[in-house]
Amino acid sequence: MSDVILSFENIEKSFFGVRVLKEITLGVPRGKVLGLVGENGAGKSTLMNLMGGVHAPDGGQMLLDSKPYAPRTPSDANDAGIAFIHQELNLFTNLSIAENIFIDGFPRMRWLPLLNRRHMRARTQQFLDAVELDVAPDTLVEKLSPGERQLAEIAKALSFDARIIIFDEPTTSLTARETERLFRLIDRLRSDGASIIYISHILPDVLRLADEIAVLRDGELVAHGQTSEFTINRMISLMVGRAIEQLYPERSAAPTATPVLEVQGVSQRGIVEAIDFTLHKGEILGVFGLMGSGRSELARILFGLDDHERGQISVAGKPYARPSARRSIDAGMAFVTENRRDEGLLMDISIAENIGLVALPHYAAASAGAVKEGRYYDQIGGVAESLAIKSGNIRQQAVKTLSGGNQQKTVIGKWLLDKPSVLIVDEPTRGVDVGAKYEIYSILNDLAADGAGILFISSELEELMGVCDRMLVMSNGEIQAVFDRSAFDKERILRAAFRENG
After folding, report:
1. What pLDDT score does 399 carry?
2. In this predicted model, what pLDDT tens digit does every residue of 68-127 receive, in sequence order?
3. C-alpha distances in angstroms, 77 versus 33, 51, 121, 366?
4. Residues 328 and 207 grouped into a single domain
5. How far from 418 is each of 383, 439, 465, CA to CA, in Å?
6. Is 207 within the bounds of a domain?
7. Does any domain span residue 439?
């Protein structure tokens, strides 16, 4: 192995009596990219949190430049030159880029209690130039696209001379063009001598970027070597502990002719136009389109989160005017949002409380306002077990302590307890490893087999082709084409998705 800038030696960590890291010994190569892969819950985030001063190890030690390194707070990690680019970016959206960069120490005008904004703007412009972000330093973060926000966070990392930069699932919200720009920037940072840890479930990207790859499984380091030693199939086998012969489960039942959701002429000016389709009992209907095609906006309209000007939505043959989230739930609809952290979960409460959120009113109504906890928690426990959520005590453990894949299963679980007839899922496998993806596909397959209709929205064409019975292709707010499974063809689907560009 090459010279290392930071090393983990026999690192141990447990939460709620569960060992999540087991004698990890690993070196981060100096001036290179280390790809870190593993299933959700494998220990990747915990290892990085130890490095970042969020948690302290229970055993073992870390060495930075061959000297003991034991950060007590994230500020200690920053002072040591370690920066994190998180999947959920840590920027204050109501502040400017310059204010975010200098949030830990605003420059003053000599002895006066005034901010030296001229200095802030000048320095920020230097960092923005370095990451090729062509916006003004005074731009509010809320005005930036996801890709621009990520570049602003990287600019912040450069502001304190980060020597080690950790990228955690950095491409999940980026367009193809923004992803390419990010990769060019990572290549340049490496050329300038920075050490990079790149965490991603998109394994081809890891092969492209990394000099070395480390694989974690169930809290143990199961492989570490030069990238030339790995293939995608080998990484998958190491991650899940077995060879995966197929990425998608076989459909266990066929759709029926019974409609569960009918959409007729639904329109909202500038967002969607004349949307018509029928979702049948037992059907998994995919919705594909490029970013900005109107996919997620349509989901929010159907569930009653956003308004529509014209058209009719019917559930189980019953039209309902003025949809709202409450009316949708009462009608038997469920919605798994693409933003699980901000919209899908209450991060500080327990796993059990999150699973029970939607169904709680029904349990209370059935017992004259007093929930019978025994039956209620038995049902919640059954859902958690059926989803194979990896956790300790679900009634005590906060959902924020779960891995991304287990958080996503918790979001799905809160709707399963309500037994919906229509389930809308928006990017349900974003940021989820290959093993957890298969589990989520299997859950959706089982729901369809039990008679639910599923509207599956995704930007990953391959998974829609692998899971769905039919597919709608959206572009510029309209449905451009509908494909039956027997007619799935990647080139034809992409042509329909690009139709707005001629």
Report:
1. 81
2. 999 999 889 988 999 888 765 678 888 888 888 887 666 666 666 667 778 888 888 988
3. 19, 7, 25, 52
4. no
5. 11, 20, 28
6. yes
7. no
Phi-psi region of 304 (alpha: psi -120 to 50; beta: other; left: phi over 0): left
| pLDDT higher at 412 or 57 | 57
Tell whether 70 and 161 lie within a shared domain: yes
Distance CA 390, CA 384 (A): 9
Over the stretch 166-209, which tens digit does the pLDDT of each residue have? 998 887 767 777 788 889 889 988 999 999 999 988 888 999 99
How far is it, in rounded angstroms, from Cα 116 to Cα 108?
A: 5
> Residues with Cβ < 8 Å from 100, sequence gap 6 or more?
91, 92, 141, 152, 156
Range of the domain at 94: 4-240
Tokens representing 189? Answer: 């940072």
pTM for this structure?
Answer: 0.63
- Is the domain of 325 the same as that of 213? no
Residues 174 and 42 in one domain: yes
Instruction: Give the pair of three-digit tokens for residue 55.
Output: 């948690």
Task: Give the containing element (helix H, strand E) for 83.
Answer: strand 82-85
**Residue 436 in domain:** no
Whether the CB-CB separation of 41 and 4 falls below 8 Å is answered with: no
What helix, strand, coil percent values describe the chain, rounded to 5? Answer: 35, 25, 35
Task: Examine the domain organization and report whether 414 and 471 are in the same domain.
Answer: no
